[in-house]
Amino acid sequence: MNHICNQVRFEIDEKDLTAALSSSAMEHLRDCSECQEFQNKETRLRQIVGSLEPVNAPPDFDFRLRARLANDPTVASYRSMSAVRVWRMRSAAVAAMLLIFAATIYMIRQNQPVQETSGSDQTMSASNDTTPAKPAEAPTAPPDVAVASNAGSDSPTEVKKNVRRRPLIATSKRPITTWEPSNTAAPVLSIDQTFPIDVSQPSFKVSLDDGRGSSRTISVPTVSFGSRRVLTPTMASNQLAPKGDW
Amino acid sequence: MILKSFSFVALIVVVGCSSALGQTPAPPREPMPVSPVSPIPPIQPQNRATTPQVVTVLHRLNGLKMFRLLLHSEQGVEGIASLDNTFTLMDDVHTNVIAGLALEDGETIAARLPEVDVEFTFPVPPPPRTPTPSTPDPFFSYRGSLFQSPDLTVIDSEGKKMIARFIGVDGATGLSILKLSGKLTAPATPMRDDKAIDIGTGVRLLGPEQAPPRRFSGGGSLFVRMGESQGTVSFVTFAGKGRVARFKARGFRSLSSANVGGVAVNARGETLGIVDSVEGSEASILPSSSIRGAAKRVLARQASVPKPWLGVKGNPVGFFEVSQMQQYGWEVARANNFVQHHWGILVTAIAPNSPAALAELKAGDVILKMNDEAIQSAEVFSWMLEEAGPSSNVEFTVARPESKAEELVKVALTASPKKTMAIATTKLTGPKNRWLVNQGLEVIALRRLVAERWGSSSGLLIVYVEPGSTAFEAGLQPGDVIESINGNPALGPISDVVFANSTTPANFEVVRKKQKMVVSVAKPSKKN
Predict the structure, then answer these.
(1) Which residue out of A24, A168, A206 would a mutagenesis test of the B interface target, given it has the greatest number of B Cβ atoms within 10 Å?
(2) What is the pLDDT of residues A181-226, one digit of tens each?
(3) Chain B residues with CB inside 8 Å of A11's CB?
(4) Could you tell me which of B128, B242, B184, B160 has the C-alpha nearest to residue B474?
(5) How far is A114 from chain B (nearest CA, A)?
(6) Which tens digit of pLDDT belongs to each residue from B305-349?
(7) CA dist B131 to B121, B299, B474, B477, Å?
(8) Chain B residues closer than 8 Å to A87 by CB
C-alpha cells in the first residue's frame, strides 16, 4: 500500500455511498485489487448500516425518564454535592482570571520604554560606539523603522535614546489584533468571531404528488451551508452549462 | 467549605496584586544593539492573518420561492398533497449561509449563491395594480411587494450586519454581485494578483460553518463562525500571456461540496479566488481576475449578464481516438497530429440558429485559436469566451478536415438562450402546464386539502410570473391560485383554444388572498 492507496481510501471514506469518486481514484481502483477490496468492504458495511431500522423511543420515554430522575435519592445527593463543586470551580475561575490580569500588568510593565526622551524625534541607540549614525531620512530605511540619528542635537557625541517600540494592542471589545509594523501584511487575529443568526423559522415540510396517485413527504432543512442547492436541480435549471457545451 | 473557598480566592488576589501592582518599576534595560538601517524584525504572526474581505452572506427564501425551487428540482413534483400546519406563504422557510468576498471598494460583494435563480430578474417593474383584497390571515402575510429584492444579509468579520441589494448574476462565472447598504467595519484586504499563484502556494479555504451553541443563548439562534481548511495549489491552468484561467488546490483535511463558494486566501490573508467546484479531494478555484471581471460586467449593466453563447458541443482533441476523428472526415495522419499535440477543440455538434451555425462552423471542425490565442484546454476555451462576454465579436482559427489550410471564422457571440427559468422548465412541467409556461407562468397544482388554505377548492398555484409577459402585464401575481380559464378547469388540459381569437383576452378565474376575482390576460403575440 502506497500513499496513493492512502489517498484513495481516504476519499472512499469521505464520500457518500452514492457520490462518484474522482477520476484519478477510479483509475487507481481499476489497477489496485487491495483498494478494490477495501471499497467493496466499505460499501457493504455502509449498506448494512443503512438497512437497519431506526429505533424509536416509546412516546412517554421523556416523561418517564424525568420522573425517575426526580425520584432518585442518589441524584438528589449528587445535586447537593454538585452545588459545592460548582462554587469551587467558580472560585478557581475567578482566581485564575486574577492571576492572568496580574501577569498581563507585569508583562506590560516589562515592555515599558527603557528611557524616554522629551523630544519628538525619538531614536534608538545604535550601539555604545560614538560613530555618527545615518540620519533618519535615509532612503534605505523603511518609513516606520527607527534609526539612530543625531539630528537636532547640538553635541555630536550625544546620541538620543529611543523608546522601545511596543506592539499595538487593541483595547476594544473586538478581537485583539497585532499589526506587523514593517510592512503592509494583514493583521493577525487572535480569536475567532462567532455570531448568532436567526433561524426561528419552521422547517419546510411538504407532501408531494407525482400526478400518478403516489405521494411522498420531503423535509427541507432550515439552514444550509455553502454553494450547494438544498434540492438537487435538474440539468435544465442548472445555472452553469455542462462541460463541453459552449 | 465556603469559608475555605473565600480564603483561597483572597490569598490568590493578594499574591496576584502584590506581584503586579506592588512591583517597583522595571530597571532600565540595556538597549538592544541595532544596526541603524536594519528594519525591525517583523513580528511573527502567532495566529492566522485576518480576512476582513471574507464575509458571511445569508440568503433567505420564503415559502413561495421554496415551491419554485421544488419545481426546478429533480423531485418530479406535479402537485402539493399536504403542507405542514406552521407553513406560511411569505415567511422564510430556508436560509442559505455562504461566504462572500468584499471587493476593494468595501461595498461590492461577490458570492456564489446557489438558489439565486428562484429570485426574480431585476430590475422588475411592479405589475399593474389589480384590486388586492386585504386579509388578516397570517398565512399570506405579504410584506411589501412580491417582486421585491432577494432577502440578503451580509455579516462582516466584526459581526456587523448589513442589508445587501442584489445587482445581478454573472452567467459566465455563476457569481452573484451584491451591493451593501453600508461600509464594512474593517477595510477589505486587496485581492492578490494571479501571477502570484503557483504550484505549492499555500491556500486557506474560508467559509461559514456552524459553531457550537453558546450557553444561555436561548432558542431560535444558530451560531456561525468562519471555518478554515488549509491546502496547497496543485495545478494552474494558464490562459496565455501569464493569465490564470483556473487553479486547483488539494491537501485539505476535509473537502466536500459544502466548500463550493468558499473564499481562497493565501497565508497573508490576501484573496486568491472563490471555489467554483469540488472534485474528489481537489477544489477548482476561480481566480481573482475572473471575479473582478464578473463584478465589472454586472455593475456596468446593473443587471444579470447572461453567459455568452456560441452554440457548439465538443471536447479537446486529446480526448479523442484517431478512429473517432476519422468519423468526422479527418485523414489518419492529420488526426494523429492533432491527437498527439493535444490542442484545439473538436466540434461535435452545432445548435441550430446559434452564432456558430450562422458563422458556418461545422461538426468536425477543430477550433485552434480564439483571437489568435491558442486554445490548450476546455477550461481555457471557457475562460476565453467568458472574458469576451455576450454580444461580442470573436475570431476563430479553424482547421477543417476537407482543407489543409487553416481558416479564420468570425463569430458574433450572443447571450445564452436559457435566459429565463420559465423556458428552462418547459420540459419539467409536462404538456398540461406547458401552455401556461408559454404565458410566462410557473405553476404547481394544489390538491383539495391544501387548496382550502388558499380559500380554493383546487387549482394551480402561481409561483412565478415572467416580467414582461402578458400574464405579468395583466397583473397575475405569485401566490394567486388559478381555478379555471374561460370556464375550463385549470387542472385539466389547457391550450390556445381558451383564446377565442387574437383580440379577445382569456379570463383567468383566480383566488387571491381567499377572494375570487377575474384577471383578463391577452393572447401573447408570436414573438413572445
Answers:
(1) A206
(2) 233 333 333 345 788 887 766 678 888 876 667 778 888 888 889 8
(3) 280-281
(4) B128
(5) 5
(6) 888 889 999 888 888 888 888 888 888 888 888 777 767 899 999
(7) 24, 36, 12, 12
(8) 1-2, 5
Burial of B448 (0-12, 13-18, 19+ CB in 10 A): exposed
Q: Is the pTM of this model over 0.90?
A: no
Q: Match 438558489 to its residue by C-alpha cell.
A: B115
pLDDT above 90 (res B231): yes
- Predicted-complex ipTM score: 0.72
A183 interaction partners in chain B (CB closer than 8 Å):
42
Residue ranges in B278-331 assigned as alpha helix (H): 288-301, 322-326
How far is the C-alpha of A135 from the C-alpha of A155, rounded, in Å?
15
Helix axes A73-110, A61-71, angle to 10 degrees: 90
Domain boundaries, chain A: 3-50, 71-110, 118-166
- Take residue A194 and report the three cell numbers written for it: 462567532
Q: Please report the sign of the dihedral spanned by the C-alpha atoms of residue B347, residue B352, residue B354, residue B360.
A: positive
Asked if B209 has any chain A CB less than 8 Å from its own CB, the reply is yes
Measured CA to CA, the distance from residue B171 to residue B298 in angstroms comes to 10
Give yes or no for B402 touching A (CB within 8 A): no
Residue B303 CA: distances (Å) to CA of A85, B71, B118, B172, B414: 62, 24, 16, 14, 16
Which superfamily does B194-211+225-301 belong to?
A: Trypsin-like serine proteases (2.40.10.10)
Is it true that domain B308-415 has CATH number 1.10.760.10?
A: no
pLDDT tens-digit series, residues A132-161: 333 333 333 333 323 333 333 333 333 333
Question: Ranked by mean pLDDT, which of B143-152, B219-228, B357-366, B446-455 comes out on top?
Answer: B357-366
Q: Do domains B194-211+225-301 and B308-415 have the same CATH topology?
A: no
